[in-house]
Amino acid sequence: MPEKVLDDISHRRFNPLNGSWLLVSPHRTKRPWQGQQEAPSKNQLPEYDPKCYLCPGNQRAQGDANPQYKNTFAFVNDYSAVKEEQQDYSPEIDNEDVSSLLLQAEPVTGRCYVLTFSAKHDTTLADMTAPEILPIIQTWTRIYASHLSPSHPLEAQAAAALKGIPENADSEVSPPKHQLRYMQMFENKGEAMGCSNPHPHCQIWTTSTLPEEPGKELVQMTKYRQQHGRHLLGDYVKLEMDKKERIVWQNDGFLVVCPWWAIWPFEVLVIAKRHVRALVDLTDEERLQFAEAIQEVTRRYDNLFETSFPYSSGIHQAPLDCSEEEAEASWFHMHFYPPLLRSATVRKFLVGYELMAEPQRDITPEQAAARLRDCGGELYRKSL
Predict the structure, then answer these.
(1) pTM of the prediction?
(2) How many angstroms separate the CA atoms of 325 and 316, rounded?
């Protein structure tokens, strides 16, 4: 165990993955709560909703009709955050001009997808089995591979991976018009995380620039590899498996931990055990193992407070257009950031000190991991 005193005193923890610190205040879990409470999320939805923009056969907001798909279905977002074509913008940089130094902007182009997880409106990842989640991972892999740079260090791996993955005739995916830099796959689950449609789905935003969070991680992982000749997350996997203090679950391919530096109360990190740079590096067996890891995390979340647990999750992997060094420094992992703190109705807010100074948490990652380890077994609502 970490030093026992850390369970009782305020202290800071370092996040080597992005180079930041956070404050941990374990004693604050005893404070009374008289603040805002969320309505517990119960999964009381129909299997098919004729008004849902994502259900099979229904009309979407812009008028296009969905096919009668069976599991996954991907299409370009009707309200994309970025577009492939837009007016050119090339600002001049003048180091003698204060406006040029302080009021900087750069254009961003790209393509945004929506990907449904299931044809069933009332299903979540927690309800699905690993074999049912597998087509999602296969579709993620196909979309990632179709957007890779032709000169990418993983191009050969991508071609080999696609041979073992069935095509999805329902999905509306094609190579981009211009080479893009990064692909961020993410899911917002639940109203508490801003999800506007309860139909099980994720989004995939592909941009011409490298976003801040994966960018900071890539800098840290590259620096670590240059300094130590090893991989940051590779070392971290070995460390956690040796200490066994924050492990929630594991199989042969993936480790699920509440990381030492977690900010959110029940934050989880899913890490490939071997050096996997991106989805296309995974074997058929590892794709199923990844599906098992996702199912274990989401089911344990729901079981923890017996509610349909809200979270934001996202995959970080090698950029779509990158150097050999960037590809080799990358290590495939998936973040889960859930907001619930004490119960189905009390959530964590990043406000005040967190916004003005640095992130802070109450319950320690070790305590969170222990609670999630105890939440295995059948999904609670199957016995209701």
Answers:
(1) 0.94
(2) 16
